[in-house]
Amino acid sequence: MRLIEAVGYPERAPDGAVSFTMQVDGGEIAVAETAGGALRLSARVSDDASVLPRLAEYAAGRMLREDAVLAFGSLNDWKGENAACAFLWLDVASGADAPALRRAFEDFADSRDWWRARVMQDAETGAAAPFPEMVIRP
Question: In this predicted model, what pLDDT tens digit does every residue of 111-137 receive, in sequence order?
Fold first, then answer.
């Protein structure tokens, strides 16, 4: 609830909920409390495994720029679905104050939008369009 209140989300989580899915900018961002008490934000980037090699080219450089992490696998917390997908996640300290929660959420949403734009760009062009930022390849 602290995160929902910090970002001004119009809905409330059910009492006692340890996870909640928010509709944000045409997509979903799931929030779940981890066993250690941190808040884990997660969002699907793509269900298409064929985009992974292209996304991997960006991953190392993005890790230098942001705290959100791109991963591929089963996102079990995502509405109980077990299908493999590319997703983004970020853990936020449980003791973070409201401004820190809001900043983390906004940064995560921006990161999710950036990754979704790369996936859409690949879908439209059949491959990644030239990208002006530096890319670090692992």
Answer: 999 999 988 876 666 654 454 455 555
